[in-house]
Design brief:
Layout lengths: L13 E6 L14 H6 L2 E9 L3 E2 L12 H4 L4 E2 L8 E5 L4 E5 L2 E7 L3 E5 L7 H4 L2
Antiparallel strand pairs: 1-2, 1-7, 2-5, 3-4, 5-8, 6-7
Length: 129
């Protein structure tokens, strides 16, 4: 794995993706046609980090809805994606970043179309070169 991602914290409902190296088919058979990749409307990659989710307002104290954000008791609606998922996402929602000389993509949860999840634990060191 290139560098450690433990110092990189993903915020809110965002997902950090390591872009795929151009394969058009996953090991289980998920296929991304060349016409889609050529137009770059949809891209794919592996989820390497996820944010905590969408923060929920504190309904107990309606006078100061956002007071709980400072108290450390923030509750979140968790994300559906997990680390190790293979994700197809809309490129128009993606933001390219470079962290420790590696390219990553940040995508909001709403920009992800579908994920492929293997029930076995995935070793991310095999994915990221």
């Amino acid at each position: 794995m290139p560098g450690k991602l433990e110092n990189l914290k993903v915020i809110g409902d965002r997902v950090l993706i390591y872009p795929d190296s151009g394969q058009d088919r996953t090991s289980s058979g998920l296929y991304l046609p060349p016409t889609v990749t050529e137009q770059e409307n949809v891209q794919s990659g592996y989820v390497v980090a996820v944010g905590p989710g969408t923060p929920l307002a504190d309904t107990e104290n309606e006078n100061d809805v956002w007071q709980h954000l400072d108290s450390g008791k923030t509750r979140y609606i968790p994300l559906e994606v997990e680390i190790g998922d293979y994700a197809l996402y809309l490129k128009k929602f993606a933001v390219d970043i470079k962290y420790q000389d590696e390219k990553y993509i940040i995508v909001p949860m709403s920009g992800i179309l579908v994920v492929e999840r293997d029930d076995e634990q995935l070793d991310l060191s095999k994915i990221i070169k």
